[in-house]
Amino acid sequence: MPDLSHLRNRDELLITMVCLGNICRSPMAAAVLANRTSTWSAPKILVDSAGTSNWHVGEGPNPPSKKTWEAAGYKFDHIASEMTAARMEKSDLILVMDRSNHRNVLSLTENQELHGKVHFLRDFDYTIAGDREVPDPYSLPDSAFEEVLGMVERAIDGLLQELTR
Fold this sequence. Notes:
The chain is of the alpha/beta class and 165 residues long. The chain has helices at residues 25-36, 63-71, 85-90, 99-106, 112-115, 142-163, and strands spanning 12-19, 44-51, 93-96, 118-120. The protein has a 4-stranded parallel sheet. Strand 1, helix 1 and strand 2 (44-51) form a beta-alpha-beta unit. Helix 1 (25-36) packs parallel to helix 2 (63-71). The radius of gyration is 15 Å and the shape is globular.
């Protein structure tokens, strides 16, 4: 479990979710986090999401992903964008979905301080002991998106527990 003690007692936190295309996993994670913290005032949670590729920049979310988070009661507007070193600097915490995303985000800068902000989202999932990746459901059946949503929700539960200790 990453140590987030340095983020406690802040008035505001910017948390950035990152996946490959920024149309499935990271906007879903952003939707869950934004909805679950919408009434928080201390810290106020600002939610961002980005992709490590520019394939879908300017597009909306993948329809099955949006359908899945909306069916679970989450409301969230999203337009895909690309992760940059400047966004790393602005973010307080960067949560990636898989090893490829992790490598790609770290490759944006050699600044070790910025590298310290980057963690796997599932590092906060108390229910797992092994694989920390959130698999990409792109072009898979709706059941894959539902499974990903469950992973995301459990990880965000753990993240929120860590932030409120």
